[in-house]
Amino acid sequence: MPRFNSKTQLSRAKLEQLYIEQLLPTAEIARRLGCGETTVLRALHDYGIPVRSKSDYRLEIPREELERLYVENGFSEDEIAQWFHTTQITISRRLIEFGITTRQGGVATQSIRPSVLSVWSPELAYAVGLIASDGNLDSDRVRVEFVSTDRELIDLYCEALGLDSIHVGETSYKSRKPWYKVRISDRTFRNFLEKIGLTPAKSKTLGELQIPDKFFADFLRGVLDGDGSWYIHKSLFGRYQYLRVELSSASSRFIKWIEQKIIELGGMNGIWRTRSLGRYHYLTFIGKQALELGRWVYYAPDVLALSRKRRVWEEIQNRADLRSRQ
């Protein structure tokens, strides 16, 4: 990794843009530039730029930025407080001072229709798979959030749950993809998810879920659309190409359960392994096993699925069909 160059990466113009115009705290500037906060503070001193105190910073929250995060993007007061490195009370006071109408509890309520949760369906199982991969059950025991950098995946999630008019929050970065968020505040939906085995802070505690066998392929398709990779792999000398499917998770219990269900219900065998000193776990399917997995989860042309991942499987499947006809 190249060393941080304070002369080129911490120019006066760059610091003025981040610290004065965008009102970013020194810790956030350090994080973005890949250096220490002390380096940023030293540069501010060298350039003669006055350093704000924490109380000064809380007072300088721009109304336009606060309104964008709270009204347009639907962020909670807590989340905005973390964004500005301040307290929820400060954000609440600023909303009142600026005359911005606040939401009850800081969250917009959005309910799932009872018919969606009354009986299992391919769509519901797919949505649960997405939540198991990229969702979050907030500690307030009411909210359910789904976050993704892929807008199509957000739209598929909303379609699966019948959310026709829900607000989709968007946060944009100059050097990274924007990410999108859908927040649901529905105690019935939250209770349903907890009953089948989902919990807050699930990344490392996720385990077996109560998914009906009939809809496990739909659930798995959602998990793979969230945390899976479909790609065409080349052999050592590039003479052959084959499909490779990989699912990753921080929970070994979850990966092992997925592997067992795929063997039991689909008959495919994958390769299970860990990386990064056991912090991440992977289940990989290669060649014919990957093709069979694709046929299982993409069992109909109209099932909900992320198009770019499905296209990878279809490309290899079409080649296999062509060879079989020759």
CATH A-level architecture of the largest domain: Roll
Shape: globular
Kindly report the spatial arrangement of strands forming the biggest sheet: 1-2-4-3
Total number of domains:
3
CATH superfamily of the largest domain: Homing endonucleases
H/E element sequence: HHHHHHHHHHEEHEEHHEEHEEHH
Helix share bin: 40-55%
CATH first level of the largest domain: Alpha Beta
Question: Radius of gyration, Cα only, in angstroms?
Answer: 24 Å
Distance between the termini: 50 Å
CATH topology of the largest domain: Endonuclease I-creI
The average pLDDT is: 82
Strands, total number: 8
Alpha plus pi helix count:
16
Description:
By secondary structure, the protein is α+β, with helices and mostly antiparallel strands. It folds into three domains: 6-105, no CATH class; 114-198, Homing endonucleases (Endonuclease I-creI, Roll), CATH 3.10.28.10; 225-325, Roll (Endonuclease I-creI). The chain is 49% helix and 14% strand. The chain is built from 16 helices and eight strands. The strands form two sheets. A four-stranded antiparallel β-sheet has the order 1-2-4-3. Strands 5-6-8-7 form a four-stranded antiparallel β-sheet. Helix 7 packs across helix 8 and helix 10 (122-134) runs parallel beside helix 13.
